[in-house]
Amino acid sequence: MRSRTRLAIAAATAAALATAVAAPAHAAPVNSPQISGPLFGYCSGVGEVEIVSPPASDQAQFTPGFIVGTHAVAVPYAFDFVLTANGNVIDEQFTSKQAVPKNAQVCSLEFGSFTDGDTTYTYSGQVLVAIHGKP
Asked: For residue 74, which of 47, 100, 52, 96 has the smallest C-alpha distance?
């Protein structure tokens, strides 16, 4: 075997081993230009979370959310969004899928607030999710 061939095989083997033992990448595609978020909240089985999600579409309104810094994905089954003005509910929207899994848990999210004159509006919500993967 020629030395160039041996060198190429050694380099390929070293690269494969380096890839195999390197720390795994996290699942959240935070640098994608089409990611929405981050959203910050609290999930009952995980704790404080930062979630990013691909954009929803007509075909996929319940898109999964990637929990940043983990290998976990939060699959939503129900949404309850609330808009308040000075603490009073002025709009609430609820939507859900059928067949919620038994391991589903609640994530509370804060989307932000803004003030217009003397009125402070706050948009928040709760999402019923099943978390898959390691948080």
From this structure: 52
**Considering its fold, how many domains does the chain have in total?**
1
- Within a domain: residue 21? no
Residue type, 11: A
Residue 128 lies in a domain: yes
**What digits encode the pLDDT tens for the residues 94-119?**
988 878 888 899 999 888 899 999 99
Q: How many CB atoms lie within 10 A of CB 117?
A: 5
Domain that holds residue 35: 26-132
Residue 107 carries which DSSP code? E
Q: By the 8 A CB rule, do 76 and 65 touch? A: yes
Closest CA to 65 of 99, 107, 121, 24: 107
Helix (H, G, I), strand (E, B) or coil at 115: strand
